[in-house]
Amino acid sequence: MWTAPQAEAEAILQLPEAEFMAELERRYGPQMGRLKRLTPPALFPVQLMQCDRYVLPRLALVGDAAHSCHPVGGQGLNMGIRDAAALAEVLTAAYQHGENLGSLPVLRRYERWRRWENWIILSFTDVLTRTFSNQIGPIVVLRRLGLWSLNRVPLLRHLALRLMTGRLGRVPQVARVGQQV
């Protein structure tokens, strides 16, 4: 899997098989050895998405089932792992209190916890993607100013790092193991 601008991706998808495989091998490099295509290539547009609801009775969406974003710094995977950890924590607490694990009130605790935090990460990664894939003058100036600020303002750098590593907001218990709080 690789990402490319929409027009480029569509053009690559239309290449004859030999040319497509040559492009794939050029992009991935020789570390995987000789590649063989088993199924036709497919195009999956990268888009910002978050479900209106994460839960219904006896159902909870986590990870890419609940949200998706551009693969900036593996944030989709990171959010999915935090979703799973938060859901496990909510269900464990509910079990310890004798609550019905599939009930809407229990599952909404997970939704309230993760939906807002995921929206923040989704928005941040979308802004990064749009900013760094854009050559419009004022946006380039804002991008440079943002990078300069991250480099010169330790508090801003610290907050951005905490946001992207899942340490800003409510951290699931399993992620706090061995961490000084």
Portion in beta strands: under 5%
CATH superfamily of the largest domain: FAD/NAD(P)-binding domain
**Helicity, as a percent range:** 40-55%
H/E series, N to C? HHEEEEHHHH
Q: How many structural units, i.e. domains? A: 2
N-to-C span: 38 Å
The CATH topology of the largest domain comes to: FAD/NAD(P)-binding domain
Number of helices: 6
How many individual β-strands?
4
- Shape, per Cα inertia axes: globular
| Secondary-structure content class | mainly alpha
- Looking across the biggest beta sheet, what order are the strands in? 1-4
> What is the residue-mean pLDDT, rounded to a whole number?
89
CATH class of the largest domain: Alpha Beta
| Poorly predicted parts | none
Would you kindly provide a written description of the structure presented here, covering whatever features stand out?
The chain is mainly α. It has two domains: 1-45, no CATH class; 49-172, FAD/NAD(P)-binding domain (3-Layer(bba) Sandwich), CATH 3.50.50. Helix content is 54%, strand content 4%. The strands form two sheets. It has a two-stranded antiparallel ribbon with strand order 1-4. The longest helix is centred in the middle third of the chain and has 29 residues, at 104-132. It starts with 5 loop residues before the first helix and ends in a 17-residue tail after the last helix.
Which helices and strands, and how do they pair?
Layout: H1 6-13, H2 17-28, E1 49-50, E2 55-56, E3 59-60, E4 67-68, H3 75-96, H4 104-132, H5 137-152, H6 154-164
Antiparallel strand pairs: 1-4, 2-3
